[in-house]
């Protein structure tokens, strides 16, 4: 280690100010020991350039691994959401077909019944008209309920998608902030 002051000049200065040679040398020796101890403490907290580069490489490889994991997770999450969305669409189409078949079946049954009942009695005809109106209302209510349920599922899917996107953006911004 180098000392950035002249110890001999300090000894001479102390002697010039009334200290003996032995006292001056002891004081300078104590100062050198204190400075060396302080430098040792400072060097303990410091890292070498090689150590810093190794740590940087380790952090970079860890960040690279996390990026890969995030990409894989993002792809799997989006594919899971897409497949779930497709399943829901297929189920809704099947339900719609079933409802339409039921509507067609009920309407055809009611029309047949109405035609048969028209020939019998006018009073029964009025009762059948009321039954048909109630059936249409029930069908309309069911269709409206199915539409409401479809909208609810759409909104849920949009919420999950938005939450996933914001989560990915938050993680990306966090890594970006750590990176910078």
Automatic annotation (TrEMBL):
It holds the Pfam family CCDC90-like. GO terms for biological process: calcium import into the mitochondrion; positive regulation of mitochondrial calcium ion concentration. The keyword Transmembrane applies. Keywords: Coiled coil, Membrane, Mitochondrion, Transmembrane, Transmembrane helix. It is found in: Mitochondrion membrane. The chain crosses the membrane at residues 160-179. PANTHER family: MITOCHONDRIAL CALCIUM UNIPORTER REGULATOR 1 (PTHR14360:SF11), PROTEIN FMP32, MITOCHONDRIAL (PTHR14360). This is MCUR1 regulator. It comes from Oriolus oriolus. The lineage of its organism: Eukaryota, Metazoa, Chordata, Craniata, Vertebrata. The gene is Mcur1.
